[in-house]
Design a protein that fits this description.
heterodimer; A: mainly alpha; MetI-like fold; 13 helices; B: mainly alpha; 16 helices; flat; Peptide ABC transporter permease (chain A); transport (chain A); transmembrane (chain A); transmembrane helix (chain A); MetI-like_sf (chain A)
């Protein structure tokens, strides 16, 4: 009963969050006085277009994006087109569909972020636990370095790494995702080429993620080390190795929820990291879209980020339900 | 004699860094309560970093000869005796721009961080103390806002703000308001847990029986118990607000026409300073941002150790000394048990 109720309540919350997120995503860009098309068209006006041509473009855009209709109709159209996998057309690269632009950049973001988040989480937790257990110089050095990496904004580390390793030492190519003249395709040649460009942004994300997790794990493990069951087991003469597994498992549980909470921040930071390395992922796409006032693209990118973060969080919470024995145990509990 | 030594032993067992004197004289008793808090070296280091940066931001511009809007050179002039860190892409003095940027970023952080803390603590205390359906509702809202990545909301709102004509919302204050009203949820959640545990304590019942009103109880009987927690949350909110501002600015959503650390980095990246090796344009804001963030997080973690003795780790030297003393005490005790009273002359 316990597990099922836990899963049901989590599902309910995440569905609620999803609905709110989609509504906000729809509503916020429409809250500005005037509308996105005004901004675009006035930009065109500065480019020297006649007012008649401007008016025509304005009306065409208004119709194309359905902005001349009442808000409620717009919302219904918005929702139905999302379910049809249609995210509209880009303003800046009219008439390229937004989905095409995203299909080009999403793979780069995924190959960068997923390994960095997972590996960072695993390495960070092990380091933090070891630091807490060993104490002394180990603790001091691991804690201080992790804290530095943890508190460093993503892009600051990226900028420093880029400058030192790529520009000064020339070990890595200084930005981009593949060599000039190469284009994304499924071939070994492209893959090895892209790998060289992948390392530097990956390392900079990984270091920060390790730092954040290690700091959290260390304080959890220190907290566990001081608890009653540890003292009791010590008095029973239980060996260090056995005890470490107990402490690790108990300190691990809050770290799993910690992962769920930090995915959003990690993704946000990673977007800027892409920008620093001019890595052609979602972050760079977002940046260019913001600069060009390309509302459909911005809205699509923010929607995808939100959905991805919510799904990732939801999966972590479900996993937590299966791992935490207290939730399983309440099955045969009072109720 | 044994009394004194056993005193020392219990003091050590409580925590090796607790500043206790085995023989508390009248002088030690006269200390005010805050002096007994354990301000470790970490706290002083982090406070030092923050004070230096605040001086740079608020006192520096008074002493430095150039202003942040004085054109003194061309694109990326190298550092010289007159301009310590050269010029940036528009030909402004980097040091002058850096000081103005730091000041604006700090002001932004203070406004946004304080706003977020006030909202978070307010919601958390009310939800935790009053409970019932109000708690369910407030925490429901909190959990939903917490699940949606705040960067997304920030991007969408500040993109709308950019095309408004109201100057108030375009500047650093508007950005701070947006950051403040989007980053309160985790403070609210954490404060709620604390507040609901405080609300079951006896002194709350006493206050209720003596006829105190709910707002009075919240302010006089609940909040003081959360004070240490609120201070730490505030420090974290400051750091995250400053970082949120620089993230938005780097995406090109910063306060247009104003200096901030994020804007400085934004321009440095836009004008290819990293690729061309103009380190003086991008390194100073990077270092200042890192120092601010590191200083605040370090301050938070050392405050955590001051307020929460369980996190405190003893120095190895102290631990060894404590073990030795305990051994000594045990040996003495054993001797005393064996020998008849009065024979042992214990040296302390």
């Amino acid at each position: 009963m316990g597990l099922r109720r836990y899963l049901a309540s989590k599902t309910g919350w995440y569905l609620g969050a999803l609905v709110v997120a989609v509504v906000l995503n729809f509503l916020l860009p429409r809250l500005i006085p005037g509308n996105p098309v005004d901004v675009i068209v006035s930009g065109l006006g500065q480019g020297g277009l006649s007012s008649e041509a401007q008016r025509q473009i304005y009306e065409q855009f208004m119709k194309e994006f359905g902005l001349d209709q009442p808000m409620w109709n717009q919302f219904v159209t918005y929702i139905t087109s999302i379910f049809q996998g249609n995210l509209g057309k880009s303003f800046a690269f009219y008439p390229t569909p937004v989905t095409d632009l995203i299909a080009q950049s999403l793979p780069f973001t995924l190959v960068l972020q997923i390994p960095a988040i997972l590996l960072g989480w695993i390495i960070g937790n092990v380091l933090g636990a070891v630091a807490a257990y060993k104490g002394g110089a180990w603790d001091k050095s691991v804690f201080t370095t992790s804290l530095v990496f943890n508190s460093m904004p993503y892009y600051c580390l990226s900028i420093i790494l880029l400058y030192v390793l790529a520009v000064m030492l020339g070990w890595f190519p200084p930005g981009g995702a593949y060599s000039l003249g190469n284009s994304p395709e499924w071939s070994m040649a492209f893959f090895t080429d892209a790998l060289q460009y992948w390392w530097l942004p990956f390392i900079s994300l990984l270091l920060i993620n390790i730092g954040g997790q290690a700091v959290g794990m260390r304080s959890m493990a220190i907290y566990e080390l001081g608890s009653d069951y540890v003292n009791y087991s010590r008095s029973l003469g239980i060996g260090d190795a056995k005890m470490t597994t107990y402490i690790f498992r108990n300190a691990m549980l809050p770290q799993i929820t910690g992962l769920a909470l930090s995915i959003g921040t990690m993704v946000g930071g990673a977007l800027i990291t892409e920008l620093v390395f001019s890595y052609p992922g979602m972050g760079t796409l977002l940046f260019n879209a913001i600069a060009a006032n390309d509302y459909p693209v911005v809205q699509a990118v923010t929607l995808i980020i939100t959905v991805a973060v919510l799904v990732a969080n939801y999966m972590v919470e479900v996993l937590y339900g299966f791992i935490d024995p207290r939730i399983r145990a309440s099955k045969s509990g009072e109720k | 004699m044994t009394n004194i030594s056993s005193n020392a032993v219990t003091a050590e067992a409580e925590g090796p860094l607790v500043p206790t004197d085995p023989t508390p004289g009248p002088k030690a008793k006269a200390k005010p309560a805050w002096m007994n808090l354990n301000f470790g070296p970490r706290l002083w280091v982090s406070l030092g970093i923050i004070v230096v940066i605040a001086l740079l931001a608020f006192v520096g511009p008074l002493l430095y000869p150039y202003g942040p809007d004085e054109k003194v050179g061309s694109l990326y002039d190298a550092p010289s005796a007159a301009h310590w860190l050269g010029t940036e892409n528009f030909g402004y003095d980097v040091v002058a721009v850096l000081m103005a940027s730091t000041r604006n970023s700090l002001i932004n952080g203070l406004l946004a961080g304080t706003l977020a803390t006030v909202i978070g603590v307010g919601i958390g205390v009310v939800a935790g103390y009053i409970g019932g359906w109000l708690e369910e509702l407030l925490m429901g809202i909190t959990n939903i806002v917490l699940a949606i990545p705040s960067i997304v909301i920030l991007i969408l709102i500040s993109m709308s703000l950019q095309s408004t004509d109201i100057p108030f919302f375009k500047g650093i204050v508007g950005l701070a308001l947006v950051i403040g009203i989007t980053s309160w949820p985790w403070t609210a959640r954490a404060v709620r847990a604390q507040a609901s545990s405080v609300s079951t304590r006896e002194h709350i019942d006493v206050a209720k029986l003596s006829g105190a009103r709910t707002p009075g109880i919240l302010i006089r009987d609940v909040l003081p118990y959360l004070a240490s927690y609120v201070v730490m949350a505030w420090v974290l909110q400051l750091a995250s607000a400053i970082l949120a501002e620089s993230t938005l600015s780097m995406l090109g959503l910063g306060p247009s026409g104003t200096n901030s650390l994020g804007m400085q980095l934004h321009w440095a990246l836009a004008f290819q300073s990293v690729a061309t090796g103009a380190w003086w344009a991008f390194l100073p804001p990077t270092i200042v941002l890192t120092l601010i963030s590191f200083g605040l997080l370090y301050l938070q973690s050392s405050l955590d150790e001051v307020f929460n003795p369980r996190l405190r780790r003893g120095k190895k030297k102290n631990l060894a000394a404590a073990a030795k003393r305990r051994e000594e005490a045990a040996r003495k005790l054993e001797e005393e048990m064996k020998a008849p009273a009065g024979v042992t002359e214990v040296i302390v």
